[in-house]
Amino acid sequence: DTGVSQDPRHKITKRGQNVTFRCDPISEHNRLYWYRQTLGQGPEFLTYFQNEAQLEKSRLLSDRFSAERPKGSFSTLEIQRTEQGDSAMYLCASSLFGSSYNSPLHFGNGTRLTVT
Amino acid sequence: AQTVTQSQPEMSVQEAETVTLSCTYDTSESDYYLFWYKQPPSRQMILVIRQEAYKQQNATENRFSVNFQKAAKSFSLKISDSQLGDAAMYFCAYRSGNTGTASKLTFGTGTRLQVTL
After folding, report:
1. Candidates A45, A104, A108; nearest CB to B35
2. What is the pLDDT of residues A79-105, one digit of tens each?
């Protein structure tokens, strides 16, 4: 169990540019979540996948945001035409879900995005 | 929608002493889970303790225990024998027991715990 890994750890970009983050969940976990955390706040849910299917998206996830999990393993979160308000920590988490089991979420270290 | 409230932005405790962090939540559901997560300066969120709402017994994990008051919708975390390594942001979180709602967590705004010598 190597834990949830996220790449990159930090990203600085200029307003209007596109950015993409990657998350590698714990290998046996079938659910993967994206959260956003701004300074002084708790994480806010963005979206989640069960295997390769994106099953829920928060209203926080504007049209400029897109997430994929093409093979049910790693996931990417892309932000197009970044705005200064997108500056935040983007957290990925994974969990194992079954008919009789629902594990707690395990989080990665996050990607800190700064939009200048 | 469920909400989680942490009314203590910051707390301080001396090493070896006991501290209690408060959390209240609002829900109309009867089946749910509550969690405390710790986020040290290195940023990775770590699960401290979890409580199933259907269990009357308060959860404990070594020096960490909770006081779960379902009727009052209160879920406080007690840290005994505080250590320097306990210094972190602590988040209270709620998860619905309805598996159709994704197992997503709703977090409070956090309490920053400082541990002093």
Report:
1. A104
2. 999 999 999 999 999 998 876 667 889
Q: What is the pLDDT of residue B99?
A: 64
Q: Which residue has the tokens 């967590």?
A: B105
Planar angle of CA B29, B55, B100, nearest 5 degrees: 40
The neighbouring-strand residues paired with A77 are A21, A67
Distance between A43 CA and the closest CA of chain B, angstroms: 6
How much of chain A is in helix, strand and coil states, percent to nearest 5?
A: 5, 50, 45
Interior CA angle at B96 toward B90 and B98, to 5°? 160
Q: What is the average per-residue pLDDT within B2-9?
A: 94
Contacts of B104 in chain A (CB under 8 A): 33, 45, 48, 56
Residue B104 near chain A (CB below 8 Å):
yes
pLDDT tens digits, residue range A41-58? 899 999 999 999 999 899
Candidates B44, B104, B110; nearest CB to A108: B44
pLDDT in tens, B33-67: 999 999 998 678 999 999 999 998 999 999 999 99
**Strand pairing category for B60-61 and B10-14:** unpaired
